[in-house]
Structures are given as C-alpha cells and as structure tokens.
C-alpha cells in the first residue's frame, strides 16, 4: 500500500560531533509543511552545519533526520559558481533543467531584475547580486523546501524590500517551506514566523 508521507522534517535524538566534541544536539523537532523557520545563533555555533544536515548533504551524525520533502534546494552562504561563468548561462541553464513554464520562469527573472545582469560574468557581480542570482536559480528549480544560509548583505534597502516582497509572495503562492539563517532581525521578521536558536550546543525553541 502506498504510504503518504507528510512533507516535513522530523528530527530525533540528534547529535552532531566535530572531532570528539559535540557541536550541538537536539532531542525532538519538526519542521512542518509551510513553516517559515528562522535559525539564529552566534558565528561558529553550527548553523551552516545544521543546514547541510537538513539538506542531506552532511550525513555524519548520530540520530535521525527524516526529510520528507520532494525537492530541497539549499542556497549556500558562500559562492557556488565559478567566476568566469556568465549570468545568462547560469540562469538559462537553471530554467532549462526545471519543469518550470516559460511564463513562470520569466516572471522570476523579471522580478529579481536578473535581466540587467545577464551580460556579466558571475565573478564581476557584487556579493548582493550573487545572492540574488543564487536565489533565482533556487526558485527556478521549483523547490518545496527552500533553505537560505545568511546574508543578503550588500543589497541596498530599496532593492532588499523589493526582493523580500517578491520572495514572500512567491513562497506563499507556491507553498514553499522555508528555513532561513540570518543575523538580521529585520530580514527574519519579513520572511519568517518561527525562530529556533542554536545556543550552548543545543537547538532550542
Ligand atoms: N568539516 C569540518 N571539519 C572541522 N570543523 C568543522 C567542519 N565543519 C564545521 N566545522 C566547525 O564547526 C563549527 C560550526 O561551523 P558552522 O556550521 O559553519 O557555523 P555557523 O554557520 O553557525 O557560523 C565551527 O567551529 C567550524 O570550525
Ligand atoms: Mg554559517
């Protein structure tokens, strides 16, 4: 019999080690369908490590992480593409690899203002522009779980407001579950409605 799995992440008795030291632990936790989960915590506390684990990229831990989403997309904290790659190529490829319609794909490209970056190489973009390109690639791939690691730094306030307004609507309309690591209270307030903390080697709510 086909067993329907709810789209959620279930965590049980989780313990992550770096060497012999516990980095953090978490007894029980669920990230539910359409949650907008913020994650906060000091630098070096393990946020990026936790995201890698949630995304299934880091499998070295004790306990259970069951990720029942179909399409998890992880936007990393640091760059992903080589400097010489054209933005045009990056975006067109992402669109091509996805089942997204032309109308939807072009809408994302338009809303994120990616057209104006098409002629540039990835390496010539500012930090903020790079992040927008990465978010574009993520949305074009039609994820049901979107994981964003840090920093929309380097995007000016107007652009940022536009970007977040669009992201909010897109996430809502496409029923995306969001996990967002940030140090910026404003950004967290705009995009998330729940927050967990990593503190004293524990994930707390
Ligand atoms: N592969 C690794 N090998 C050794 N140490 C690591 C590795 N990955 C992460 N760490 C350590 O784990 C800690 C948490 O790192 P990270 O998850 O990047 O923190 P955050 O994102 O909260 O700033 C850091 O002290 C880092 O040095
Ligand atoms: Mg980090």
From TrEMBL:
It comes from the Bacteria. GO terms for molecular function: ATP binding; ATP hydrolysis activity. Residues 9-205 form the ABC transporter domain. Keywords: ATP-binding, Nucleotide-binding, Transport. PROSITE patterns: ABC_TRANSPORTER_1, ABC_TRANSPORTER_2. This is ABC transporter domain-containing protein. It comes from Lactobacillus melliventris.
């Amino acid at each position: 019999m086909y067993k329907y799995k709810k789209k959620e992440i279930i965590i049980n008795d989780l313990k992550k080690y770096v060497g012999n030291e516990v980095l953090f632990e978490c007894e029980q936790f669920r990230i539910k369908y359409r949650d907008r989960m913020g994650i906060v915590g000091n630098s070096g506390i393990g946020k990026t490590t936790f995201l890698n684990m949630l995304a299934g990229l880091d499998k070295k831990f004790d306990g259970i992480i069951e990720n029942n989403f179909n399409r998890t997309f992880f936007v990393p904290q640091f760059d992903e593409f080589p400097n010489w790659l054209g933005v045009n190529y990056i975006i067109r490829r992402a669109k091509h690899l996805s089942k997204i319609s032309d109308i939807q794909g072009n809408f994302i490209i338009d809303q994120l203002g990616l057209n104006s970056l098409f002629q540039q190489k990835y390496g010539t973009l500012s930090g903020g522009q790079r992040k927008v390109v990465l978010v574009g690639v993520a949305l074009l791939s039609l994820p049901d779980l979107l994981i964003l690691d840090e920093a929309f730094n380097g995007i000016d306030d107007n652009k940022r407001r536009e970007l977040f307004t669009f992201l909010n609507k897109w996430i809502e309309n496409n029923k995306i579950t969001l996990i967002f690591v940030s140090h910026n209270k404003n950004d967290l307030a705009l995009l998330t409605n729940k927050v967990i903390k990593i503190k004293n080697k524990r994930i707390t709510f």
